[in-house]
Amino acid sequence: MLPVFPVFSGIPHIATGDLVREELNSSGTLSSQLKEIVNQGQLVSDEIIISLLSKRLEAGEAKGESGFILDGFPRTIRQAEILEGVTDVDLVVNLKLREEALLAKCLGRRICNHCGGNYNIACIDIKGENGKPGIYMAPLPAPPQCVPNLIQRADDTEEVVKERLRIYNETSRPVEEFYRNRRKLLEFELPGGIPEAWPKLLEALNLDHKDKHIAAA
Ligand SMILES: [Zn+2]
């Protein structure tokens, strides 16, 4: 997930998962249909996601919003195609992290089963080699009162995480290609956590996209 960075604080951050949750808790037109889908354990269709998204974008425009950051969407080529008919995307930022670091991050995830806090015990310190820069990501330690209650998600095993990554790579590659062909893709290799990545990301955005504002990431 792309964290909301301070410089974008005036620009709304839209995550489609939040849109679905908001609609479920509302009395909106799609709410009962959504409840049925979720209760049956089915995936929410692209059409429903896009319709929630258009509704959100129209509401934003009416309020005078001049842009938005889309988080985690589109994930498939079909979603990208439908999105193109709904709004103009200026720029797509592909945040990349080496697989060994991603894997260590997922395996290091801990949740406090009392307060729901999210922490990470992984200390990632991969040395640079063969021209590849090293990566350092500090752990996110739990406060003492949470430590006795830390649990690991049942699906954060090496096997499951690797399978998730494989599926992600398979579906995201055509989406990257879609935006690369339209010259809208910015590839960004994460050098570490947010403190290391943030200045470099700003630099990349300013150098390559001076007069564009960021509509999607
Ligand atoms: Zn706690």
Automatic annotation (TrEMBL):
Keywords: Kinase, Nucleotide-binding, Transferase
GO molecular function, one term: ATP binding
Reactions this protein catalyses: AMP + ATP = 2 ADP
Pfam entry (one): ADK
Entry annotated with the keyword Transferase: yes
UniProt key word Lyase: no
Enzyme Commission number: 2.7.4.3
Entries under Gene3D superfamilies matching the protein: P-loop containing nucleotide triphosphate hydrolases (3.40.50.300)
Subunit field text: Monomer.
NCBIfam families (UniProt xref): adk (TIGR01351)
Family statement: Belongs to the adenylate kinase family.
The protein's name: adenylate kinase
Annotated organism of origin: Salix viminalis (Common osier)
